[in-house]
Specification:
about 75% helix; single chain; mainly alpha; about 160 residues
Length: about 160
Amino acid sequence: MASRYAKITLTLALAAFAALVAFNNITDYGSNFAFVKHVLSMDTLFPDNAALYRSITTPWLWHAAYWLIIAGETLTAVLLARGALALWQARQATAGEFNQAKKYAIVGLTLGFVVWFFGFMVIGGEWFLMWQSHQWNGQEAAFKFYMAILGVLIFLNQSDTDRG
């Protein structure tokens, strides 16, 4: 039972994290929007960068990208909260039923990984070369986020057995 409670708790903790990140991005829209604007504009990269053709300098595209991020964070939070609830409801169930209850949490964790790894490391970090910016580099924070998500995803996917 300790393993089941741990899986529920970790899933719920990540749901709270994703919800707070989305909440902060909405309630402090301007300062967090500036991050997206500068990353997409590629305006703080190494001088004479040959990849500046990738930059996006259209304001509505900055807003669209930012709202896509917020939507991903919000959906991650909702799926993880729904997953934690499903796990809680199945905590006394058979191993098969508990394993089936993991589906929302697995989808939420996968989406969270996509947001923070693919969105921030692949797209932001490599396509828009965020790693070159000293001021607008979110890779270290994103790394912490997606590694926590990945750790919980691995733990959650461990098959549960019937209570003994």
